[in-house]
Amino acid sequence: MKRVGVFVCHCGLNIARTVNVKEIIEKTSKRSDIVFAADHKYLCSEPGQALIKDSIRQHKLDAIVVAACSPAMHEATFKTIAQLSGLNRYNCEIANIREQSSWVHDDPDKATAKAQITVSQTIEKVKLNEPLQPITVPVTRKVLVIGGGIAGIRAALDVANAGYQVYLVEKSGSIGGRMAQLSETFPTLDCAICILGPLMVEVYRHPNIKLFRLSKIEEVRGYIGNFKVKVRQEPEYVDVAKCNACGECAKVCPSEIPNEFDFGLTWRKAIYTPFAQAVPPAYVLDAKNCLGLLPQACGECKKACDQLGTACINLDAWQQTHELEVGAIIVATGYELYDATKLTEYGYGTYPDVMTSIEFERMLSASGPTLGEIKRPSDGRVPREIVFIQCAGQREPETALPYCSKICCMYTARHAMMFHEKVPDGQTYVFYMDIRAGGKGYEEFVKRCQEERGLLYLRGRVAKVYEENGKLVVKGVDTISGKKVQINADLVVLAVGMIPSAGSKELASTLKASLDANGFFSEAHPKLRPLESPTAGIYLAGAGQSPKDIPETVAQASGAASKALDLLSSPTLEREPTVAQVLESCSGCGICIPGCPYDALSLNANTKLAEVSEALCEGCGTCVATCPSSSLSLRNLTDQQMLAMIEAIVA
Amino acid sequence: MQSYLYFPGCTLRTVAKDYDTSAKACARALGFELKEMQGWLCCGAVLSNVEDNLMTKAGPNRILARAEQEGDRLVTLCAGCYNVLKRTDLHAKLASPTQQSINTFNEDSYNGGVTVVHFLEVIRDQVGFDVIERAVKVPLKGLRVGAYYGCLLLRPSGEMKFDDPNRPSILENLLKRLGCTPIDYPARTDCCGSYLSVGSPENSQPMSGAIVKSAHSCGAKLLAVGCPLCKYNLESSQLPGAKNAPAEEFLPVVYFTQLLGLALGLRPEELELDTQQMQAIHEAQTRTLEGREWH
Question: Which of B6, B34, B109, B266 is the most buried (most CB within 10 A)?
């Protein structure tokens, strides 16, 4: 019989406040099958671990039960100390008496009784545990990065610089993302494209990065370390390698449409370059707005290009599917902006001089629609009175977004400052709920804007915006003076919130990664594992996970890259051996096969019996429940163990 | 003839008889009947929606319980009654403990079998604006009308689900079909002052006065409403002696049902439109003034 030891943790007062630890030790010590039982204030601490180690050696224990917090928290810690003390790590089991007892119950007697049962059933389980060895699987030492904004760019460069192959998939015609659209960045006012541009070029030139533009993730199979990914690339009508971005094709293109990069404030052709610094530096043919490709209706661009001898346009291009094998996936899908037309009280979409912050941003940009001058969209006049409305459609759980987008206080201060710089005799009003300027140099920046620039900050919300006599009448309230305010403005700028990119939901289901209530990618743990998706091998970077600014995005991207590098640092990967196994009684009926959510079961071609792929099996037990002849069993969670545990519970 | 169960409410029997008469006349002209429900009583007005007093909810629940005996759809006209009955119905369908108390208290409990609709919704959803347009005999060409919704039809928008509370359009869409020119004016969703006109008219009059001024300045010659209280406030704010009364000439206020009736070819007396109102309508139609049109 196994020599079993039990260790009970107080977790400070987390467990001991509700569960009577001494009582558990007392009762457990009296069991004939227990060699040793002890408690400690913090078992995970160094002295706590030393207690386990010394006791295993001193009492020659074969197996241990650690009654403490959730296995999600410290299972690895305790299994490792068991292993270091000479046990097989699968002879260590965790009894969760914190999350499943002390934290969720108020009555100490009942909580203690429940904790006692938890400990007893775990003892029954560990007594029947087999020593196991981890399963070793090879790792494909390549990384897929989804999204070519600043997050994807940073993550791709970090992985590539460490010497591993990166596939960077971008859905639009150029990498750069939202940051490429920005004029300046807070709080230092660096020109956004000036600091982003070199990184974009570095990505393009990097020997370890392969860039797919106009591409989307179609299918993802496999598991951590061994993903098989299908990437669908829209037809590349323009040969990226040959195009020298001379622009002759666009000159002759007859189809003109609003330019989405400038939010419709300028026009572009159907063959176009997304923006001056686009990477790859090649034109893009927008098939939707082309006069016709099937059958070909115009072809002027191709004629112009062929005449020049560049001959990089192929109007018969077809979409391609690339099959990639990678070990890790970094999701950097970024954000979009909340649809301001839904905020009917502000009149966006009705009055041309009500614009969103990102449209204002384009106007501030030296390469934007007005070349950096601030003009009213309606009549081109320079506005004198400007109103910024912060939290537009944000922090409004009932009607719009419930959350704060975190960056609007800062960029609005910057916008107000830039406006003052360009229109020194203008007057700026900012409606705000409260100023959230947490970050290095942020508070100082906002204070500087308010004090040195004479910007008028009004604490309160705007009820209504309407047009009267060529002015926008902004009716709001200043809650500090307690008075209603009416401002006759020339221009109104709405700081609308960030929402996840349009394709997030679809991508999440392809990746089997989860989203939170607001549609952002969920992290494995809000504090301790913020860079990882709960799905193993998938890492998160940037605003696709939650609204955040550029410094935070870059930090998270480098963090996600280092997580991926950690995985890639070894040619093999260890997986838990607690997987399903097929017993001799299997008749090969195959009922278990369609039930497996991980495609881990198949019929062996020779024996015609069921077979488990140990690399794919997650040990969920679905097949065990499905098998009509009880011929499948989970390692270290056999029927025999289950029955012993149930007996301990009902005893 | 198809008939709809109809709840008039006390105001439509007293100061807003014209609303009741004109709606019934329009219904007949469109081939349906508004059949008054048996044993209706006061809905309790907005007091019924006070959260903490169950007594005030007993009345409207009783109305719905009685309506349930006669049909599954209840048509209202007064915006106040519509608001109260629709929200009472929503509350009843939540099956909350407070609803159980009300059901225990009332001798006949309401089982949630009635859908409360506004006459305007019947016109739009059951009859259809296309049918209305074809039924128009006298298009009200050149009539610049400012639609005014008030709050009770629209808010709380999550419960009423009647129209966009900040940019409603159902009245304008109807008026356009009648040949009118609906006017967009900034104050069209502002508050008229509501019951403040009872206790402190000095506060409500400037509020409704501002709405009238705004409509005037945008070229409206007439205001169309669906709420008797709004009508009262908009009219009384223009009377001599009202605080901050608009300096412009009197802007008549009519119910949308009266304009609908005129367009359908009904005679003014069938719609209880008086000589003064008719004169204003005729004058407005003959004069075309610069103003912003509804888009």
Answer: B6
